[in-house]
Each structure stands twice: as C-alpha cells, then as structure tokens.
Specification:
Organism: Streptomyces salinarius
Largest sheet: none
CATH topology of one domain: 434 Repressor (Amino-terminal Domain)
Helix content: 40-55%
Protein name: Helix-turn-helix domain-containing protein
CATH architecture of one domain: Orthogonal Bundle
Order of helices and strands: HHHHHHH
Number of helices: 7
Structural class: mainly alpha
Pfam families: HTH_3 (PF01381)
InterPro entries: Cro/C1-type_HTH, Lambda_DNA-bd_dom_sf
CATH class of one domain: Mainly Alpha
Distance between the termini: 60 Å
Length: 149
C-alpha cells in the first residue's frame, strides 16, 4: 500500500468520523476512545490510522464500517485494498420485468449486505422477519395492546 492511498483513506475516514459526532480533534475530547469502544477495537488502531501509520486490519475495518454507518464495501474500496471490479454491486433487474419474477433478497443476504456482525445476525434475521409479510398467511389488521393499555 502506498503512502498516498493511506493518506487519502485516513483523510476520508477522519471526515466521516467527525460527521458521525466523534470529537477526534481535541486531545481531551475522548472521540478516539469512544469510537474504539463503540467499534470494539483497540484505541491504538484508531490512533495509528489517524496518524497515517497503518491501515486497519479487515476485522477492524468491518467494525468501523458498522459504527460509522458505511458499507464495508465502501471502506475496502476507499482503503485501496480492493477495487469496484473486485466487489461489483448486484446487477439491476432488466427493465419491464414484473414483480412476480423479481427476486428479493433473503434476510441472510440483507444481513451480509448491511454488514451485520456475526454475533447479531440471528437477532437481526428474527426481528427483520417480523416486518415481512408472510405470503401464505391471510393479511389481518390486528391491534397489539401497548404496555400503557
């Protein structure tokens, strides 16, 4: 990896970190520590990246992407590790294709695409599945009582 790639990536991620509300400019601001804690990584990994000493490893990149609400794909491409050709986006369905033939993502594919952490995957699938209509079940409008009822 070239110094230029590391500089470009670090500058991009610095701006992203600031936009997400982490105070990384003030030594006493605690932004680096808070980011490291939320991502579950060592503060030293954040410091080394921001000081342009080293690129984070793949797991740190994945965790930072999750906290910074950026697709892991974008992080990997911007870091220079992979190219858009290495990680192509899924092709759009051909124009005029009907809904009956349209393939929808599975919850597992959605979890992968969103970068859901392995330890949260089962919960994501269970909760997200509650929002999807069951094609075999009749549609009923039912009021669920609230705790305040």
């Amino acid at each position: 990896m070239s110094t230029g790639e590391l500089d470009r990536f670090a500058a991009w991620i610095e701006e992203l970190i600031r936009r997400r509300g982490f105070d990384i400019d003030n030594p006493r601001g605690g932004g680096k520590s808070r980011l490291a804690d939320e991502a579950g990584v060592h503060r030293a990994a954040i410091t080394r990246l921001l000081q342009r000493q080293s690129m984070p490893d793949l797991e740190t990149t994945r965790r930072l992407a999750h906290v910074l609400q950026v697709p892991v794909r974008d992080m990997l491409i911007r870091s220079g590790r992979l190219t858009e050709d290495d990680l192509p986006l899924p092709s759009a369905p051909p124009a005029g294709r009907g809904d009956a033939q349209e393939r929808r993502l599975t919850l597992e594919e959605a979890a992968d695409g969103l970068g859901v952490a392995a330890e949260q995957r089962e919960m994501f699938i269970r909760i997200a599945g509650q929002f999807l209509p069951d094609a075999s079940a009749p549609v009923r409008e039912e009021r669920t009582p609230l705790a305040s009822d």
